[in-house]
């Protein structure tokens, strides 16, 4: 029955077992050989939503058997990215659990014991073929237009022959004996999927160095951890056939086999597999670019799941509504514009305190808190990502160089700009946006007194302060700039206009 798992290598009479809750148990099993890919993050999300929707258990399993490429810091980074996304798990290498250990590098004994049992029961056999012979056979098969598969050259060896060669120092891999016929998996997203043994062949389960192959380790672990559903990308479809063969050979009853669900891959805008040449592909990249985790999760959920007119969805809503059979089997195209739109919605929904904190993190070191607050307030409606903060804030924080046609409006408004300078000199070092509005009202009154309309006085002031005719609202610009800086910019603009005027004089 599901839930009766080996606590370690089993004995011939069944060995010791532990009880696991027979509720839904799913696993996310990243390989710590690189950063968490955005596609893998979506797989983790679907497992998380399915587990939480069904009141089940999510297991995090580190598939770190590639010793040459697996690194501890990469595992830690993957876990950090998952936490940043707001996804948690119930069992894993960082917190233990009843099916521990959760790193495949620590589960070698269970793989070797399972492989030995398959050999003893006639489901697997030793293979002494060299890599050179296997490659030659593969080339021959391809040249003949056939699907390469192992020719069972070592299949008929007797136990005595095998032992003699092992005693002679030869190393052997172990292969699963694949029975003829079809392997059928009733996919929860795609429906029944059939694979014929002709295209699989007897595959290696244990390499000659004693390391388990991916499909063997994954199947043994799924059985040992009581996995009820395997939710992953459709690039694993052929792996499913091999893992089912392993599970059946190990004696797993049909009722206890995991149910499989293969979601579609994420494609780039060019229709190819999402890759670095098209931009950011790792979760950490989007974090650095200033996307919010709520927006990333929201977008990943929608990539294969139509939710009608509702598109801005939090985790609580996603958990409540998630159903595997509603996921599309068609490839999903990653749309950076749609992600940007969603991120903007989440920025607008964020609290003022959280928004200010995120903006302040992206501003130049030493930016005064008054300036940060003013910039946070004025930029909120225009930001698609927090990665845009530095560039947008630079339009206010960087002292402009005023040249060319921009000097003429300053020259015409020189008198009122000098009046604004006096008004600002009488105000505190920093003003609030509301106080800035009062200053601007007094400034407009100065202009009106000499026959200048609002545009005639406000545009030159904006040019003097930012070097542009367009940009953030002036009250917030004034609130972001200290009094001395405001004075200095007006002085510089008036000086530049005066020098230009003298050069043009006959």
What does this structure look like?
The protein is mainly alpha-helical and 506 residues long. It is built from 20 helices and 13 strands. The strands form six sheets. It has a three-stranded antiparallel sheet. The radius of gyration is 33 Å and the shape is elongated. Residues 1-17 have low confidence and may be disordered.
From the structure above, extract its key features:
506 residues; mainly alpha; Glutamyl-tRNA Synthetase, domain 2; Arc Repressor Mutant, subunit A; three-stranded antiparallel β-sheet; 46% helix; 10% strand; disordered N terminus
Secondary structure layout plus pairing:
Layout: E1 4-6, E2 17-19, E3 25-28, H1 38-53, E4 57-60, H2 72-84, H3 108-120, E5 124-127, H4 131-143, H5 159-167, E6 173-176, E7 182-187, E8 191-196, E9 204-206, H6 214-224, E10 229-233, H7 237-249, E11 259-263, E12 266-267, H8 283-288, H9 293-302, H10 315-321, E13 332-333, H11 336-349, H12 352-362, H13 369-379, H14 389-397, H15 407-412, H16 414-425, H17 433-449, H18 454-466, H19 474-480, H20 483-504
Parallel strand pairs: 3-4, 10-11, 12-13
Antiparallel strand pairs: 1-2, 5-6, 6-9, 7-8
Helix pairs in contact: 1-10, 6-7, 9-11, 12-13, 13-19, 16-17, 16-20, 17-18, 17-19, 18-20
């Amino acid at each position: 029955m599901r839930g009766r798992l080996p606590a370690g290598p089993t004995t011939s009479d069944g060995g010791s077992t532990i009880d696991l809750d027979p509720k839904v148990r799913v696993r996310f099993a990243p390989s710590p050989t690189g950063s968490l890919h955005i596609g893998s993050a979506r797989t983790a999300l679907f497992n998380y939503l399915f587990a939480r929707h069904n009141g089940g258990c999510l297991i995090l399993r580190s598939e770190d058997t590639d010793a040459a490429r697996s690194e501890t810091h990469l595992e830690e980074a993957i876990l950090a990215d998952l936490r940043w996304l707001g996804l948690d798990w119930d069992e894993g290498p960082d917190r233990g659990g009843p099916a521990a250990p959760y790193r495949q590098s620590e589960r070698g004994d269970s793989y070797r014991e399972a492989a030995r049992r398959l050999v003893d029961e006639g489901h697997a056999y030793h293979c002494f073929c060299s890599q050179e012979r296997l490659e030659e056979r593969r080339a021959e098969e391809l040249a003949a237009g056939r699907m390469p598969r192992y020719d069972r050259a070592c299949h008929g060896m007797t136990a005595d022959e095998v032992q003699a060669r092992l005693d002679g120092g030869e190393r052997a891999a172990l292969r699963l004996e694949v029975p003829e016929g079809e392997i059928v998996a009733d996919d929860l997203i795609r429906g029944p999927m059939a694979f014929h043994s002709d295209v699989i062949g007897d595959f290696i389960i244990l390499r000659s160095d004693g390391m388990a192959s991916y499909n063997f380790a994954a199947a043994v672990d799924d059985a040992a951890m009581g996995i009820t559903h395997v939710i992953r990308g459709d690039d694993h479809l052929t792996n499913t056939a091999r893992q089912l063969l392993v599970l059946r050979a190990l004696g797993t009853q049909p009722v206890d086999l995991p149910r499989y669900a293969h979601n579609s891959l994420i494609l780039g805008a060019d229709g190819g597999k999402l890759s670095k040449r098209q931009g950011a592909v790792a979760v950490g990249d989007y974090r650095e670019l200033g996307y919010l985790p709520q927006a990333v999760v929201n977008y990943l959920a929608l990539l294969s799941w139509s939710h009608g007119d509702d598109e801005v969805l939090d985790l609580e809503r996603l958990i409540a509504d998630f159903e595997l059979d509603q996921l599309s089997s068609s490839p999903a195209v990653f749309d950076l514009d749609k992600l940007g739109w969603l991120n903007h919605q989440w920025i607008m929904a964020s609290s003022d305190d959280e928004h200010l904190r995120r903006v302040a993190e992206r501003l130049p070191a030493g930016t005064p808190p008054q300036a940060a607050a003013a910039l946070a307030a004025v930029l909120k409606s225009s930001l698609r990502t927090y990665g845009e903060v530095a560039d947008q804030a630079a339009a206010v924080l960087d002292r402009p160089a005023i040249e060319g046609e921009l000097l003429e409006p300053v020259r015409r408004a020189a008198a009122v700009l000098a009046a604004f300078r006096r008004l600002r000199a009488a105000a505190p070092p920093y003003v609030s946006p509301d106080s800035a509005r009062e200053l601007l009202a007094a400034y407009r009154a100065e202009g009106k007194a000499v026959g200048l309309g609002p545009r005639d006085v406000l545009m030159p002031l904006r040019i003097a302060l930012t070097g542009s005719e367009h940009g953030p609202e002036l009250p917030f610009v004034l609130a972001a700039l200290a009094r001395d800086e405001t004075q200095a910019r007006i002085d510089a603009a008036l000086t530049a206009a005066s020098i230009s005027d003298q050069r043009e004089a006959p």
